[in-house]
Amino acid sequence: MKGRLIAGAGIAAAAAAAAWWLTDSAPYPYAHRALLDLPLPFLTNRRLDALLGVQPGERMLEIGPGTGLQALHVARRLGPSGRLDIVDIQAEMLDCVTRRAVAMNIGGIVPVRADARELPFADAIFDAAYLVTALGEIPDSPTALRELRRVLKPSGRLVVGEFFDRHYVPRVTLLRQAGAAGFHPVMMIGPPLAYFARLQCAAGT
Questions:
Q1: Which tens digit of pLDDT belongs to each residue from 151-164?
Q2: Which of 4, 74, 89, 202 is least enclosed, having the fewest CB within 10 Å?
Q3: Could you tell me where the DSSP H helices lie in the chain?
Q4: How many Å apart are CA 11 and CA 5, to the nearest integer?
Q5: How far apart are CA 62 and CA 60, in angstroms?
Q6: In DSSP terms, which residues pair with 113 in a beta bridge?
Q7: At residue 164, what are phi and psi to the nearest 5 degrees?
Q8: Helices 71-78 and 91-103 sit at what angle, rounded to 10 degrees?
Q9: Are 58 and 128 in contact (CB under 8 A)?
Q10: How does pLDDT run across 174-187, given as a tens digit for each residue?
């Protein structure tokens, strides 16, 4: 009896996972925001810190902040003299992060509703940028990477986090697209299906 219950639970879990996989959409809907609060294996804030190298007072950019799992952490590390611009096409996500920041007394977060393929920023104004499980949700990721290169300073750095789902960007694809956009790889950590990559702006691009 116990074995049948365990088997039944396993089948139900597999069915739920399959349903999630088949119905997963981009951008991730605000209605399912609770799932965005769950830390993903290997894509921890500690690993993000190791590659992003946040320095107090810097200006940074996050594309696709979700409910703020990374944004609230990074904004704290930037300190009162730093600034984190968060870009999303869903106003509800931006409002969610803003409310949380106010409740947690975290300043320096500036929400911007925009398309990552057409960023409303001047050239070369950000010290660094990052996206966590967001690049594959952008319909034209090569264009988004070119836009990120445009708004980053010549010494700017970009960190991309990817986790295996329907919108997953394999390492080889990321490196090809990033190279074409004017980045060169510096470091990758984590297994192939859950990795962080640090990219640097290439000289002369």
A1: 999 999 999 999 99
A2: 4
A3: 2-23, 45-52, 71-78, 91-103, 141-151, 171-181
A4: 10
A5: 7
A6: 88
A7: -70, 110
A8: 50
A9: yes
A10: 999 999 999 999 99
